[in-house]
Amino acid sequence: IDRIGLEGATFTRAYSASGLCAPSRVALLTGRYASRGEHAIGKTASNYADTHTRVTVPYSKLTGADSSHNLAAGLGSVGFRTGAFGKWHIAAEADLNAMGCEYSSTEYECDYAIAQQVVQQAGFDVAEAIFIANLNNCGTTCSDSFSHNMEWLTFEAITFMADALDASQPFFAYVNPTVPHGSDAANSLTTWNDGPYFCAATPAGTITDDWAQACDGSMTATADFSSLCSTCTMATRNTIWSSSSGSCSGTSDRSLCSGINWVDESLGAMYDFLDERAALDATMIMVFSDNGHAKATVYEWGVRTLLHVRYPDGGIAAGTTVNELVSTIDIVPTIFDFIGLSGTYDTNGVSWKAIADGSTTSLDRTEIIAEVAHDIAVIRHDIKLIFQDSTNANWIATSGIYSEYDHWHTEFQLYNLTVDEGETTNLADSDTDSLSTLQALLESHLVAVATNDGCCSVPMSLSATSGSSEITTFYDCGALSEYAPEYFGSKIDASDCTATVEGTECAVKCATGWDDDGDYGVQDTDAVECVGGVWTSASGWALTCLHFDHSHSYSVTAGATVSGSTIAVDFTAADGTEYTSQNKYLQTHCGDCDEAGLLDVAGEMCWTQVSGCVGFVYFSGAATPFVMFKSDATTSETYTSIVWYQFDQSSLMYCDIFSDAVGGGVDTSACTGHLLRTECAVTCLSGYDQDGDYTTNGDTDAATCASDGSWVSASGWTLSSACSLIDYMASYTTHQSYKVNGNGLALYFTKSGASTSTYSNYYYQSYCGDDCPSESAFLNVAGELCSAEDDCAALTYYSAGDDPYVIFKKVATLTSASSEWAVIEKASTAR
C-alpha cells in the first residue's frame, strides 16, 4: 500500500462521500452523491415526510437507473472488460427477489450464482469471489462454512487481468477486500477462534481449484498462484496474524491490523503479476477506503480516507503529493479523463487528473459533501460545517464513537480543520461569516442534490477521443431568448426561465398574435423544458409566436364621425370622459405594447376574432387608449382623437380558393374563405382517400390556410391528390334485359311496378354523397366496391324508384327471362 503512494501520488485530503460502506460504494461507482440514489430516494419517500434523502446502508443499493449509469457500464460501453471481486453489499432486495431469491435474514441465503448475477446486472462482465454482504451479521449461514478469504479474491482478480491481457483488451478490476471490517479477521487467520476457515472455504462452496489445494486445511501453507505468475505470492495466514503481535494487542485490534496486512499481501501479489506481465506502468492503481474508524459519522475520522494512485504512463510522477479536496465521487470522472473519454455522464464529481499529472495546481470546486443518515458535512478549504438534522437524529453511530465528540447532535457545528482536526471547538457562534457561507452551500446541496434528484440529468453516452476528455454532466440550454426571439414583431415573455440547466421548466407567453398551438395568443402560455441541451415545448410549439403586420389591411380615416352599432359600443369622449364600453380592447390586452402594437393587435382581432367585424375605432383621448369593433360604419359625431380603421378584405387573400383534387371529386364548399388560418373541410366524394380508408359517405380532412399561402392538411394528406378515383367500370361487361336470381351477396330486389321488398347489401346513391355527380359516378363507386370484395362476381344496377341502388352478386346464375326490365343491368367482372 505504501509503495503505491511512494511510486505515485498521495492525496492528503481525500474524503469518502459517506461515513458508511454501502453509500460510499454507491457514490464511488456512480460518481454521484448517495442521496441521489434511486433506492435511497424511494425508501426515504416511503418512511420519512418532508425531508432530504436519508443515506444509510439499507437505503444505498445499486439498482434502477444507477445499475446502468455507472463506472462499470460506462467503461464497458467503450470496450473495457469489467470485473468485480470481493465485497458487494449494495444489492437491492427487489433485484434478488426478481432473480429467484427471497431471503429471511441475510443475502447469503441466495445461491451464489444469483449473487454473481446481481453484480453483473450492474455492468460487470465478470463477478467472482463475490461476498454479497457483510460477514459480521450473517449468522450461521456464514459461520458454519466460510469467512474472509483474501487468497480466493486475489486469485480471481489476477485471473481476470490475465485473461484481459491475453486478449489485448483494456480492463477495469473493482477489487473489494472484506477486511478489515469489524473484529472478525481472526476467525480466518487463526484456528482457535470461530474457525478454522481455510482458503478453499468460500460462499461458492468448497472449491477444488489447484491453487487452493496447497493452502486448504493449513494456516501455514501458501496459496499457489504459479499458474498465473511465477512471482505472485502471499504470506501464509499464520504469518499474517503473527505480524500484528508487535504493533497491536487484543483480538479486536489485532484483527484490524492483521486485516490491513492481509489486504497489503493481496495488493502485492497483484502488483507483482502486473510487473511480470510488463503491464504495471500502463495500469492505473488506486487504493482507498470506503470510510474511516468513526463509522456512521461525517466527522474527519469517519469520512477522511487514504488515497494512493500509481500511473506512470498516465503522467503521475513518483512522490507526488496532492493537498486539494477530493472525494470518492471524483473517481468516475477522473478515470474517464485519464482514458480520454468524452460525451455525457451524470456525475457530481470532478476530475483530478490535471493536479495528479502536474498540469495544474488546483481544482475548480468550492466544496465537497459527506452524508450519513440525515447528517451532512460541507467542507470548504479548511472550514467544515456539520449539519445534524434535529428532527431526524443520527442514532446509527455507536456510543463508543459519538461519545468522543462533545457537540454530537448539535444542529450546526463549525470547525477550523487547520488547528482543530479533532473537531472539538464549535465556531458556529463566533465565526458567523463562515457559518453563513457554508450554510448557503448546504442549502444548495439540500435543494439541488439531496432532495429527490435522482439519476440522470443527462444520458450516459461516451466515446474515446484522441484529444482531451470532455464530459458533459448536465445540459445547459442557454437563455431561452436564443431560441425564441421576437418573431415578426411579437414579443415572448420568458421572464421565469432564469435557469438554463437540464430539466428546467418555465413558461413562454405570446404577448400578441397566434401562437404555435393554433390559438389566438392573448398571453397564451406554453410550458417549455430544457431537454438534451435544447428548449423543448410541452405543447409542440416551435417556440415562436406568429404575428403579422395587419395595418396594410385597413384604410384609415382620421377625424371621422362614428356612431356605435351592433358590436360597436359607447366610448369615452374627446374631453376624457369615459363611458361604459363593451368589447373595448385596452392597451393592457397586448401587454405594454406601444400605440402601433395596440392598433396592430386590434386589426388582427377584427378579422380573426370578432364575428362580422368591418373595422374598428381607435380612441386615444383617455388615459388608457382603447378600440371598439364595428359591424358597420354609420357616423353621427366627430372627435378629432378618433380614427376609423376600415377593413379591406382583399388585402388578406393569402390562399387561393381550394380547387378539386386531381383524379376525384372533392367537396370544398366549406372553404368559402381563404384568409390566413381559415379552416375548412375537404371531402372526398368517392374513392380511397389518403388516410387509407375507403370513402363511403365522403371522408373528410380539415385543411387550413397557412401563413405561407398554402393549404395544409390536418391529417397529412397530399391535398392536390387527396381523393383517388379510378374508372372501375372499364373492368365490367354490361348485359341488359336479363332476369337475375339472387344468391350469395346478391339479394332480391323489387320488380318494376311491384311492391318494395326487403333488401340488404344494396348500395344507395347516398353512399357516395348526397348527390353523386352523375349516374356513371354512382356506378363507378359500386364497381369499385365490388372489385374490393374478394367474392363479388358482379353487380346489378336498378334505377327505378327514388333511390337507385345496386345489388352485389357472388354467382352470376342467369335464368330464362320471365319478365324484362330495360333499366336493370347486370355487369359481370372481367378481372
Quick structural summary:
By secondary structure, the protein is of the alpha+beta class.
Average pLDDT reading = 77
Kindly state the percentage of residues in helix.
10-25%
| Principal-axis shape | extended
Beta-strand portion reads: 15-25%
Structural class category:
alpha+beta
DSSP helix count? 19
Largest sheet: 5 strands, antiparallel
In words, what does this structure look like?
By secondary structure, the chain is an alpha+beta fold. The protein has 19 helices and 42 strands. Strands 26-30-28-29-27 form a 5-stranded antiparallel sheet, with helices on one face. It has a 4-stranded mixed sheet with strand order 8-10-1-11. Strands 14-15-16-17 form a 4-stranded antiparallel sheet, with helices on one face. The N and C termini lie far apart (89 Å). The C terminus is likely disordered.
Characteristic key phrases:
single chain; 831 residues; alpha+beta; 5-stranded antiparallel β-sheet; 4-stranded mixed β-sheet; disordered C terminus
Strand and helix map with partners:
Elements: H1 2-6, E1 9-11, E2 14-15, H2 21-30, H3 38-47, H4 71-77, E3 81-87, H5 93-98, H6 112-120, E4 126-131, H7 140-143, H8 150-166, E5 171-176, H9 185-189, E6 201-202, E7 205-206, H10 210-213, H11 237-242, H12 250-276, E8 285-288, H13 300-303, E9 304-305, E10 307-310, E11 320-322, E12 326-327, H14 331-339, E13 341-344, H15 353-356, E14 368-372, E15 375-380, E16 383-387, H16 399-402, E17 412-416, H17 432-448, E18 461-464, E19 471-472, E20 492-493, E21 505-510, E22 514-515, E23 524-531, E24 534-537, E25 545-546, E26 554-558, E27 585-586, H18 595-608, E28 615-619, E29 626-630, E30 642-647, E31 666-667, E32 679-684, E33 688-689, E34 700-705, E35 711-713, E36 723-724, E37 732-736, E38 739-740, H19 775-788, E39 794-798, E40 805-809, E41 814-815, E42 825-829
Parallel strand pairs: 1-11, 2-12, 3-4, 3-5, 13-19
Antiparallel strand pairs: 1-10, 2-9, 6-7, 8-10, 13-18, 14-15, 15-16, 16-17, 20-21, 21-23, 22-25, 23-24, 26-30, 27-29, 28-29, 28-30, 31-32, 32-34, 33-36, 34-35, 37-42, 38-41, 39-40, 39-42
